[in-house]
Amino acid sequence: MASSEVEPAKTILLTSVANTIERFPLREGSFSYGTAGFRTLWERLPSVVNRMGILAALRSRAKGGQGVGAVVTASHNPIFDNGVKLVDPDGGMLSPAWEGYATRLANASQYDVLLTVSDIIEREHIDLSTVGKVFIARDTRPSGEILVDGLLEGAKAVGAHVEDLGVLTTPQLHYAVRYSNLNSKSSSLQGYMENIVTAFRKLVELNPKGSDVKIDPIKVDCANGVGAIHLKHLAEMLSPLAEYRIYNDGTEGVLNEGCGAEHVKSLQVYPIGLDAAPNEHCCSLDGDADRIMFFYNNGETSGHAEGDGFKLLDGDRMASLLAGFIHNFVLEAELDKELSMTVIQTAYANGNSTSYLTGQLKLQVMCTSTGVKYLHAKALEHDIGVYFEANGHGTVLFSDKALQLILAGVESNPDPDSSKKARSFHILLQLSDLLNQAVGDAFSDMLAVQIALLYRGWSYIDWINCYSDLPNRLAKVRVRDRSIVKTTDAERRCVSPPGLQDVIDRMVKEVSKGRAFVRPSGTEDIVRVYAEAETNKLVDELSNGVIAAVFEIAGGVDGKQTHKSSK
Ligand code: G16
């Protein structure tokens, strides 16, 4: 664009921004781009969502017109919350540098919005002759439709071409953004479905036991969310090879109420409406289907009616199953010298899962702060990055180098039956297709777990027997202002308020295999308290002690323990 055209173009753009923000007045309170974007009561969000439309369009223009995503969802939060999160052109989370712009824009007065937009254009050297492209999707929350209107307006005001993809799972939107920019696969919803269905079918065919196998049916709690809509379609495509029985499909129950991945992980009870007979394979998705928990009933009575026989296989279990499974093929393909493989966890990972990964599987493990954005970024630093949060978010990323070596192996060994090594190349290639490369995805994780169990001939019982979890507790404590709680060392140590970490250290020292930390949630107005120890008695003492310390030192208002360990 000629320099004489820049100022008029900018004036037109700012006028258009001024017009759109006027229709979405700023609500009271402050907003912060947290663990997964903005999340709060939906009534507070119209101005924020409209401004995120503006930012998404600016981000796209700053990236030379590549597609950027914006998804309206509050995932595991209650139905009356909503949220908005932006997706970068590679299908990953918004770059941290732009999160600062997001927070600034969300809190700016009408006038400051114009200054901020102008500042972003300058700093990011945005060429105003580029046309932006924004993909929009939302979950099933009733407020989503209203909020999407503002998002759409904001993006259009900055001259973006907007594609509203409708009601999608969060991973489907990430996938659409990634592959619309890469042009290597169809980015459409049908393309997404066909990609994972084809990879799953091929993996079943490559199974050394032959393709005439029986895959255990699985009962899927869809949290009354968007997962139900798309799982129905996926189940039809995979029938009769695999069978998915859908529960909490949204026709009767309330989103995330008494069901969903967060509910079963926190309370360690069955989701409402799903009757698990002993040893049946079951799982729960969350409200936007980007995380998954597996569980079964071991048939034992625990005296705790809601959780009788309940056994949970969480994100740590997925990490250990899939890392071990994939590493085995890396070894058989003789790629272990050429490819670095690492497992990324957070402080919430059970200590015994980390010991199993390092001790039994001999894999390197790293720890990051909570939030897919941190784990995903760390995983990208390795050729094969396996990342999972204990709460069920995660996937396995393959670097370009890994994919090139695997592809070369497939090309030089076209017949998978010719040797174990040949088969391993083919299996790795299909796994890299099955596992969503943009973000953790409940659907592809579910299918990958089914494949790993099928190859190993394992039931959930065999899977859970790999190691025993250390007893652990997760509690939520409401404090007057959670922003006073600040942490360091991948959230394992608390640096503010002063004195809190000293008290935690003293308590942890007294307890065998003790570990505890506190951190402010980025999605709810609470502080989370995690504790683990060698026995249930010890972990109860430790957890209660830390909760009391948070109350006293961080200004507690209300607190409740929301997590029981598997006994
Ligand atoms: C989001 C993030 C996750 C994070 C979770 C809880 O999940 O994507 O990475 O683990 O929030 O975060 P916090 O402890 O900060 O509240 P989701 O499924 O709600 O989108």
Structure description:
Pfam families: AMG1_II, AMG1_III, PGM_PMM_I, PGM_PMM_IV. It catalyses: N-acetyl-alpha-D-glucosamine 1-phosphate = N-acetyl-D-glucosamine 6-phosphate. Catalyzes the conversion of GlcNAc-6-P into GlcNAc-1-P during the synthesis of uridine diphosphate/UDP-GlcNAc, a sugar nucleotide critical to multiple glycosylation pathways including protein N- and O-glycosylation. Its cofactor is Mg(2+). The protein is an alpha/beta fold. The chain folds into 4 domains: 3-167, Alpha-D-Glucose-1,6-Bisphosphate, Chain A, domain 3; 192-313, 3-Layer(aba) Sandwich (Alpha-D-Glucose-1,6-Bisphosphate, Chain A, domain 3); 315-441, Alpha-D-Glucose-1,6-Bisphosphate, Chain A, domain 3; 472-565, TATA-Binding Protein. It has helices spanning 3-22, 46-62, 96-107, 110-123, 143-157, 170-182, 189-206, 226-238, 261-267, 315-332, 351-360, 372-379, 400-412, 420-434, 442-456, 460-464, 500-509, 536-554; strands spanning 38-41, 67-72, 81-87, 132-138, 160-167, 218-221, 244-247, 281-285, 292-297, 310-313, 341-346, 364-368, 384-388, 394-398, 472-479, 486-488, 493-496, 515-520, 527-532, 556-561. The strands form 5 sheets. It has a 5-stranded mixed sheet with strand order 1-3-2-4-5, with helices on both faces. Strands 7-6-8-9-10 form a 5-stranded mixed sheet, sandwiched between helices. β4, α5 (143-157) and β5 form a beta-alpha-beta unit. α7 packs parallel to α15 (442-456). The longest helix has 20 residues, at 3-22. 1,6-di-O-phosphono-alpha-D-glucopyranose binds at residues 35-36, 75-76, 286, 290-291, 370-372, 389, 391, 393, 521-524, 528. Residues 35-36, 75-76, 286, 290-291, 370-372, 389, 391, 393, 521-524, 528 line the site of 1,6-di-O-phosphono-alpha-D-glucopyranose.
